[in-house]
Every structure is written in C-alpha cells, then in structure tokens.
C-alpha cells in the first residue's frame, strides 16, 4: 500500500510539473508557409551565385597559371611543353557534382561547351574569344551537346571557332603558343591545400579563398610547378621524409624567383605562412615523419629569398 501511494505521488508530481512548464513556456508560433514559387526563385538565385563564384575562381586560377607557365616557358625552365590557346573551356560536367545538379535543375545551363576564361595576351585573347562565349562549331564541325574538348583544340594548328553570346554569333580564327605541359585543376574542397600528383596540379577552393591576393596564390602555383619542372617525385615523401623536405625547400626558393620574374609583388607573399598558420594551426608543429618543413622555417627562408631578390633587382 505504501509503495502504491509513493508511485501515485510521483505520478501526480510529474503531472503538476508538466502543467507548470506548459504555463510558463511561451506559446509556439506556427511556422510561416513558404511559397513554392518564391522557393524556386531563391534556389535559382543561390545556384546562379554559386556558379558565378565557381567561374570567378576558375578564371582567377587559370589566368595566374597562364602567366606563370608562359614565364617559365620563355625562360626555358619547362622540361615538357605543348600547344596552348589561352582559353579555358568548360562544360556542365566540369562543375562540382552538387553545383552541377543545381545548375541543371535551375535551368541555368543545359549543356554545351563554354569559354570560362581567357588569358590576357594569349592567342584566344588576340582572336577576340571572350569569357562566356558558347562554342557552336570548330573548323565547321558542329559541336553537339557533349562533355569533350572539340577535335583539334589541343593541336598546334590554327582552327576556326563559331561562337555565340548575348551579342550574337561570330567566327574567329585562333592559333596556339607553346607552354609548360601540365594542367591545373580546381578542386571544390574547402580545406586549404595544393598538390602535384605527378601528372596534374590540384588546388582547393579553400586555398583560393585563404589567399585573396594573386601574388600569394601565384607562389602556391609556382611552388607546385617547380615540382614538375624539377622532376620531383612523391617517392621521396614515402621513403625519405627528409629528402621530401629538401624538395619542398627547393620548390619554395625556385618558386618565389619564378613569381618575381612573372612580375608579381613579392611583399604580399612574405606573410603567406603567417596567414596559413592562422587558418590551419594544426600544421604549425613538427612531425618527424612530416614531408614538409616547419612553416616557421619556410617563412624565414622565404623572407630571406625575397630580400635577396629585391637586392639583386636594386643592383641591376
């Protein structure tokens, strides 16, 4: 009987507590309805903004790449070169998967081959190829809605392009020039990294967003290019961490000189390791097995190299 009374008291106490909580809790407001048409418009707006941002970052990376690659080629530093037209072509399939789906769903782009960026002074620029142009035909061969580069694009011979944009249609002839033969790929990761895997250079969106000035981003690209021109291999990092650190030091030193030859402001690059340390503090410390030197060491070596380059410039 006492146990039953105890349980009854507990039940009554719990019921009272619930009622008191209901009294002091503010009444819940009903969630506002979302108009489906407004939702579709807002979704399209977000997809367009994301597409514009991707295009802007792709164009920025490509333009810096072309400037550095041309400088290295003219200086005879590239072990392998190939024909280049100075225009970055893009299809919907080249977009990150999530953005690709939204762009298709929003009807922003159904397919086709577009010019995403044009490098200043390149054969494409001299032929009046413009970012945003859609390629309709190459040398009279109609371009279907596909995800491949047109035939002859990567050859050295001059080709004709039938182009279309908001201002109308036109036909241009475009030649080529010789450039370092290694591609740069923009990765949609928001981690801060760049890498040369032996065939291509990859740079994350996070790295572009961490380095808003072109000089610092040029240094990152130049560093990776040196791995290509100096024929560095990933085997050093697997079997010899110390050897890999030496390769990183060489890439830093030769990379900053390439940035200087390309005409970038080196004073902006001097603080790059401080900025990256603030954004990615987990990589400040030393690991015996690490294949990169300490960032503090890289900062000091980089600043000394910049001072030496500027002294040489003042003496010339």
Description:
This protein has 316 residues and is of the alpha+beta class. The chain has two domains: 40-179, Pdz3 Domain (Roll); 182-315, no CATH class. Helix content is 49%, strand content 16%. It is built from eleven helices and eleven strands. It has helices at 2-24, 36-74, 97-105, 123-126, 205-210, 214-229, 235-239, 241-261, 266-269, 272-279, 295-315, and strands at residues 81-84, 87-90, 113-118, 134-138, 141-142, 159-165, 168-174, 177-180, 183-187, 194-196, 200-204. The strands form three sheets. Strands 2, 3, 4, 5, 6 and 7 form a six-stranded antiparallel sheet that branches. The mean pLDDT is 86.
| CATH topology-level fold name of the largest domain | Pdz3 Domain
- CATH-level-4 superfamily name of the largest domain: PDZ domain
Q: Average the pLDDT over all residues and give the rounded result.
A: 86
Low-confidence stretches: none
Binned strand content: 15-25%
Number of helices: 11
Q: So what's the overall shape?
A: globular
Number of strands: 11
Number of domains: 2
* Largest β sheet strand count, sense and barrel closure: 6 strands, antiparallel
In the CATH scheme, the class of the largest domain would be Mainly Beta
- The whole-angstrom Rg is 28 Å
Q: H/E order of the elements?
A: HHEEHEHEEEEEEEEHHHHHHH
Helix content: 40-55%
Distance between the termini: 104 Å
| CATH architecture name of the largest domain | Roll
Structural class: alpha+beta
């Amino acid at each position: 009987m006492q146990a039953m009374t105890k349980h009854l008291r507990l039940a009554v106490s719990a019921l009272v507590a619930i009622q008191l909580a209901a009294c002091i809790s503010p009444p819940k407001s009903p969630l506002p309805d979302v108009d489906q048409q407004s939702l579709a418009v807002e979704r399209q707006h977000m997809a367009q903004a994301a597409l514009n941002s991707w295009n802007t970052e792709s164009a920025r990376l490509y333009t810096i790449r072309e400037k550095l690659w041309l400088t290295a080629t003219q200086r005879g530093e590239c072990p392998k070169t190939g024909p280049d037209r100075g225009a970055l072509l893009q299809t919907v399939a080249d977009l990150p998967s999530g953005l690709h789906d939204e762009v298709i769903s929003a009807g922003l782009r159904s397919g086709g081959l577009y010019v995403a960026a044009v490098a200043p002074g390149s054969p494409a620029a001299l032929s009046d190829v413009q970012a945003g142009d859609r390629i309709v035909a190459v040398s009279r061969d109609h371009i279907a809605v596909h995800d491949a580069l047109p035939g002859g694009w990567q050859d050295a011979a001059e080709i004709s392009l039938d182009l279309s944009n908001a201002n109308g249609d036109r036909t241009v002839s475009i030649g080529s020039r010789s450039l370092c033969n290694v591609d740069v790929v923009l990765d949609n990761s928001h981690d801060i990294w760049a890498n040369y895997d032996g065939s291509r250079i990859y740079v994350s969106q996070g790295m572009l967003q961490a380095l808003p000035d072109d000089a610092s981003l040029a240094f990152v690209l130049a560093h990776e290019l040196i791995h290509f021109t100096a024929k560095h291999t990933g085997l050093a990092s697997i079997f010899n961490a110390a050897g890999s650190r030496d390769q990183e030091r060489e890439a830093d030193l030769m990379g900053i000189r390439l940035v200087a030859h390309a005409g970038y402001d080196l004073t902006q690059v001097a603080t790059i390791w401080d900025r990256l340390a603030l954004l990615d503090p987990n990589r400040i410390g030393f690991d015996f097995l690490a294949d990169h030197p300490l960032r503090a060491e890289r900062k000091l070596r980089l600043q000394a190299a910049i001072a030496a380059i500027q002294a040489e410039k003042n003496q010339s």
